[in-house]
Design goal:
Number of strands: 11
Structural class: alpha/beta
CATH topology of the largest domain: TIM Barrel
Largest sheet: 8 strands, parallel, barrel
CATH superfamily of the largest domain: Aldolase class I
Oligomer: single chain
Strand content: 5-15%
Helix content: 40-55%
CATH class of the largest domain: Alpha Beta
Distance between the termini: 38 Å
Bound molecules: flavin mononucleotide
Radius of gyration: 20 Å
Length: 325
């Protein structure tokens, strides 16, 4: 299995679970790791909210050592607010890398001149990231796009490396390109050639196209976002693909077990209501591509309590036990 190394820490494989607001909770990270993900990211965390001691934000921070390397992702625009937040998480969260979000295209985030807005000016980016690196007690990583309205990824990766950033994940689209349309893997490849630090390729990558993406980008690792939601088995599939092994079909009982595990971990983190809301969509994704699931999915999207999920799903596990007798 090929590996890559970030600030001296060897990551056991090149398969990375992306930061995903609303999704990449402890539950998602834990399941991704169970199936082999080498590195996981938290959801983006607001520097402002950390400084305001927002309870929900504090609950989202990793407070215990997880079973594999985790990047805690932060976003913000005002330098003093960001540095204050970093001083807080230096002491109050448990993680391996501090990732700074330079890719978010959400209007709310751009209006505050944070996220991918910061890609506009590589010199300012350098100044900000240098201070972040000097303030953080953890190695600093960055997640970027190709640029804001034009591609200036080469300048930005050089600025980031010069500032002391030790890993860059690149989503191969500009901010204005959003999340659809072609991903410019060739530009990720060009950026990769500019720096010595590892580069992660990101954007529409899956088991089918990963070899092609590797060939074009020469990236050190690969990051999976939407493909990994409700699909932690993706990481096993990627490992099997690399090892030339057959990719297993999804098994209903295994998917159901994952949904229930995901639900319970999510409840422990976010409370029953929020967890049940998240799992409505995510549970259906766990069943994606499987035959005869329409009726079950139609019921899952209406579940609003743990017991409703269990009433629907738990019998499917004992069905299997009956079949095995
Ligand atoms: C629902 C959703 C939430 C996201 N949240 C974040 C986030 O918190 N931080 C971040 O850097 N990127 C975030 N992204 C971007 C993804 O990490 C990733 O860069 C993008 O989806 C492209 O990769 P994919 O095609 O594998 O999904 C988000 C994307 C989606 C669809």
């Amino acid at each position: 299995m090929k590996t890559f190394t970030v600030a001296g820490l060897e990551i056991k494989n090149r398969y990375v679970q992306a930061p995903l607001a609303g999704y990449s909770s402890f539950a998602m990270r834990e399941l991704a790791r169970f199936y082999g993900a080498g590195l996981t990211y938290t959801e983006m965390t607001s520097a402002n909210a950390i400084n305001y001691k927002n309870k929900k934000t504090d609950e989202m921070l990793p407070h215990q050592k997880e079973r594999g390397p985790v990047a805690l992702q932060l976003f913000g625009s005002q330098e003093d607010v960001i540095l204050e937040a970093i001083k807080y998480i230096n002491d109050h969260a448990v993680f391996d890398f501090l990732d700074f979000n330079l890719g978010c295209p959400a209007r709310k985030v751009l209006r505050q001149k944070s996220g991918s807005y910061l890609l506009k000016d590589p010199d300012h980016l350098y100044e900000l990231m240098r201070k972040i690196v000097l303030t953080s007690s953890h190695p600093v990583t960055a997640k970027i796009r190709l640029g804001y309205d034009k591609v200036n990824v080469k300048e930005n990766v050089k600025a980031l490396e010069a500032a002391g950033v030790c890993l860059i994940a690149i989503h191969g689209r500009t901010t204005l390109e959003g999340f659809v349309g072609p991903v410019h893997y060739d530009q990720i490849g060009e950026a990769k050639k500019m720096v010595q630090i590892p580069v992660i390729a990101n954007g529409n990558i899956n088991v089918e196209n990963i070899d092609e993406v590797e060939r074009i980008t020469g990236a050190d690792a690969f990051m999976f976002g939407r493909e990994a939601i409700g699909n932690p088995k993706l990481f096993e599939d990627l490992i099997n693909h690399e090892e030339g092994k057959e990719i297993r079909e999804k098994i209903l009982q295994e998917q159901v077990t994952c949904i229930l595990r995901h639900l319970d971990l999510e409840i422990a983190e976010k409370g029953e209501k929020n967890a049940c809301d998240v799992l409505r969509g995510v549970s259906c994704l766990y069943l994606k591509g499987m035959d005869n699931m329409r009726a079950l999915k139609n019921q899952l999207v209406h579940c609003s309590s743990r017991s409703e999920y269990y009433n629907l799903l738990f019998p499917l596990l004992s069905l299997k036990a009956e079949e095995d007798k």
